[in-house]
Design a protein that fits this description.
heterodimer, A: 504 residues, alpha/beta, Rossmann fold, 3 domains, six-stranded mixed β-sheet, 17 helices, 24 strands, B: 348 residues, mainly alpha, two-stranded antiparallel ribbon, globular, repeat (chain A), ABC_transporter-like_CS (chain A)
């Protein structure tokens, strides 16, 4: 029996002369979880956009249950039973969960323009039950955590998909990129539930996840589908080789580049207290990487914001090079030699509509000024310098930042602080989140380089591995307080279980 | 390595992340989360009533309650219509113009001293339809011509004034229709009949807000128009409808204004724009859309009217009153937005 639910045959797509997708064919069988893995820029998001109806392929066909289809829009694809769970969530915060699940698709739950609430809520509850979520359909959506909202999003995709005649195909676009490990585990349970009534396409750049959850995986590189593999018979190293086209070296975290710091205290935080954190004390030395790890709501993000003057402090002190500093705004902190990379690159870290040049000189325009005026030539020269130094892949300095890949965007954001020769302290909130492996390795190497140059780095690590491997010292935060501190010399790193114990 | 990583942290997460789920927090947490009831605005209203009640013994008398009801009726009706427009993130500045026009239309169509019409209830319906028509012009200009509602409704405001002036023709029509005059003059259960008209509009507004697609989509569109579009919702249609509803409410308010003043007058709408928008905003409906509701706006209007009334009673100089009203709006908005205050919040 032919049980292929959804497939693409020979799809190609070019954007302004760039071949984003070249002759890609994939099949999704009924009740199968398909992995789609590749580095950022490998073409998996373009493929997903074709599958979900955002783009049309230039060549090639999309087949749904054996019939060729042309999706005119996302809404059209959804009506046909192909529903996408977007990375940036598409739920409205100010209405109830039930309304969100059936938004624009209320069916008989709205009769002649009038709501039949009990029916709507019952149906929403059924969908939530189907994926094992405990969320109440009456809850206003903004009251839910990100992870729970994602469950609602999946329920919504299921509801939309099931309004067609066939079993739905659910497309999950990097659903794990902003989830904590425990939440990822929950999501996997949901995917296993989904599998009983739908086909799933799971997009990720994390190899472990694809190996854990998928029945079959397609590996993409440079716009092509380079391999189809069976997770049962392939390992991480093999997958990495397929994705990147070269072997995984021991240099991922650039551990051989870690050197002991000089010992001179750069930043001394003592008994710092504010909304969301309390009694925080630590020293940060010049040339040291100090990792802060903690679960969601451990208070570390707020602490980072407070250190750069973006959140308020009620008591305690911060001493920079022996002098007490008190920042009323991030501008004060920047003037004192602080750099800060926020966790949300797309909204807080960079201006996607501005050019690479404008972003790079945003925080320290004085570096490209002659007297009171900005100098175009100086700006171009400086930017070209940094683009070269950090190997930022961009067509030119006047390219909008938004059109670069995530890794290159993050390098620009880092460079924004590096242009300041007076940079003393760099606070990095999960700088590698959402980056692909290659770009992560680049960022790690860059952090090492900065530390060697004497900059004090406070790293809010994205994963425990990252925190342990990257730092000289690691502090764990729990409920807004520091719960433990571990020395982290190369070769004598703490066990992850020991660190984990102090996080929860 | 990988599966082991995940399973370990799973146990950890379960221990740490006991969640709200389908059983929710304490009573107060639940009450404060219910957005359908404007708790802060109600508290403010209660406070105002207590303060003025203590300051002046006449404030809480039946006669003054009647006066309050009489003064609130028109802005309450206006605020109900305005709420749907503002929920969608638009604004309707035309209320005074539409009230002027429909006040004149209704005065000329009932028994009066200038024309020989005596359409009675039909005059009310026609006035409401005229208001809805002006609203439709505004709504279609916003959605089809894509002009910001702020500008469009300044235009329809003046159009309304223009219509009123043409109909005015130098001499105000004095109403002789006893039925219409009785709306303002006679009472039911001790309250002016106009107040019951307003109450009916409020109840209808609440029902529309909660039970109809139009009402719910007002929140959807105000909360995220792009998401609404992606979900296949015909945003333009609902937005136009909101302006029509607001126009219809203004039309009814025009009739009520005629009833109160006993004549058609261009000035019948004066002062209502400030009162309506201030009321809507004080009640907690955000001008950016998606938050608040009919009940919020009504409570906001009651706050504004009580303050105006109370200030007169306690003898604050009429020259100062207007500034005090303005200051209260600024204060109230500050209080409403206080919890959203954050160092990096962008304010334009």
């Amino acid at each position: 029996m032919n049980d292929i639910a959804f497939s693409v045959r020979g799809a190609s797509k070019t954007f302004g002369g760039v071949q984003a997708l070249e002759d890609v064919s994939i099949d999704v069988r009924r009740r199968e979880v398909i992995g789609l893995i590749g580095e950022n820029g490998a073409g998996k998001s373009t493929l997903l956009k074709i599958l979900s109806g955002i783009h049309q392929p230039d060549f090639g066909t999309v087949l749904l249950h054996g019939e060729p289809v042309k999706f005119r829009s996302v809404a059209h694809a959804m009506r046909m039973g192909v529903a996408m769970v977007f990375q940036e969530q598409s739920l409205l915060p100010n209405i109830s969960v039930a309304e969100n699940i059936y938004l624009g698709n209320e069916g008989t739950a709205v009769k002649h323009g009038f709501y039949r609430w009990p029916l709507l809520r019952r149906r929403a509850a059924e969908k939530l039950d189907a994926i094992g979520s405990q969320v109440s359909p009456r809850t206003r959506t903004e009251q839910l955590s990100f992870a729970k909202r994602q469950m609602v999003e999946v329920a919504k995709a299921l509801a939309t998909g099931e309004s067609s005649h066939h079993e739905p195909v659910i497309l999950l676009d990097e659903p794990t990129s902003v989830l904590e490990a425990a939440e990822i585990k929950r999501l996997f349970d949901v995917i296993r539930e989904l599998k009983k009534r739908a086909s799933v396409v799971f997009v990720s750049h994390r190899m472990e996840e694809v190996l854990t959850i998928c029945d079959r995986a397609y590996v993409m590189r440079d716009g092509r589908c380079v391999a189809e593999c069976d997770p049962a018979s392939v390992d991480v190293n093999e997958l990495y080789r397929l994705m990147v086209g070269r072997d995984l070296t021991d240099g991922y975290f650039a551990e051989d580049q870690q050197i002991p710091h000089t010992g001179e205290v750069r930043l001394q935080v003592s008994q710092l207290t504010g909304p969301g954190f309390a009694d925080i004390s630590f020293d940060l030395h010049a040339g040291e990487v100090l990792a802060v790890v903690g679960v969601q709501d451990s208070g570390r993000e707020t602490l980072a914001r407070a250190l750069v003057g973006a959140a308020s402090v009620t008591s305690g002190s911060v001493t920079l090079d022996g002098r007490v500093v008190r920042f009323r705004s991030p501008a004060d902190a920047v003037r004192a030699g602080f750099g800060y990379i926020p966790g949300e690159r797309k909204t807080d870290g960079a201006l996607m509509g501005l050019t690479v040049e404008e972003n790079l000189t945003l925080a320290h325009p004085e570096q490209v000024m002659r007297g009171p005026v900005l100098s175009r030539s100086l700006e171009q020269q400086k930017v070209a310098d940094w683009v070269d130094k950090l190997k930022i892949k961009t067509p030119s300095g006047s390219t909008p930042l938004g059109s670069l890949s995530g890794g290159n965007q993050q390098k620009v954001v880092l460079a924004k602080w590096l242009v300041d020769p007076g940079l003393k302290v760099l606070i990095l909130d999960t700088p590698t989140r959402g980056l692909d492996v290659g770009a992560k390795a680049d960022v790690y190497a860059l952090v090492r380089q900065l530390a060697r140059a004497g900059i004090a780095v406070l790293l809010l690590a994205d994963s425990l591995e990252e925190g342990i491997a990257m730092s000289h010292r690691i502090v764990t935060m729990r409920d807004g307080r520091i719960s433990a501190e571990f020395e982290c010399a190369p070769g004598a790193r703490p066990e992850r279980t020991a660190v984990l114990e102090r996080m929860v | 390595m990988a599966p082991d990583l995940l399973s370990q942290e799973h146990e950890v997460g379960n221990a740490a992340g006991a969640s709200e789920d389908r059983s929710r927090g304490g009573l107060w947490a639940r009450v404060s989360r219910i957005e359908r009831v404007p708790i802060p605005a109600l508290a403010a209203l209660a406070l105002i009533v207590i303060v003025f009640g203590l300051a002046n013994s006449t404030f809480l008398t039946l006669a003054n309650m009647q006066a309050l009801a009489d003064q609130s009726a028109i802005p309450v009706v206006l605020a109900v219509g305005m709420t749907f427009v503002i929920l969608m993130g638009s604004i309707d500045l035309s209320v005074e113009g539409v009230v002027a026009a429909t006040s004149m239309v209704s005065a000329l169509l009932v028994i009066n001293d200038r024309t020989h019409h005596h359409l009675g209830l039909w005059a009310v319906l026609i006035s409401v339809a005229v208001g809805a028509g002006i609203g439709a012009v505004a709504g279609l200009s916003v959605t089809r011509l894509r002009i910001p509602s702020f500008l469009v409704t300044i235009g329809t405001w003046q159009i309304g004034i223009g219509i009123a002036q043409v109909l005015f023709g130098g001499q105000p029509p004095v109403v002789r229709d006893r039925e219409l005059l009785s709306w303002a003059l006679k009472t039911w259960l001790g309250m002016p009949r106009l107040a019951f008209v307003a109450l009916a509009v409020v109840l209808l507004g609440l029902w529309v807000q909660h039970m109809t697609r139009f009402g719910r989509y007002a929140y959807v569109i105000g909360g995220g128009e792009d998401i609404a579009r992606l979900s296949g919702i015909k945003v333009a249609r609902f937005r136009t409808l909101a302006f029509i509803v607001a126009g219809a409410c203004s039309g009814l308010a025009g009739v009520m204004a005629t009833s109160r003043s006993g004549q058609g007058a261009v000035a019948n709408g004066n002062g209502y724009l400030f009162l309506t928008i201030a009321g809507v905003v004080i009640g907690g409906t955000l001008l950016t859309g998606g938050r608040g509701g009919v009940l919020h706006s009504v409570v906001g209007v009651l706050i504004m009217v009580s303050i105006t009334n109370g200030m007169i009673l306690v003898g604050i100089s009429p020259y100062v009153q207007q500034s005090v009203q303005g200051a209260i709006v600024v204060l109230a908005v500050t209080a409403t937005l206080w919890r959203l205050r954050e160092r990096l919040r962008v304010v334009k």
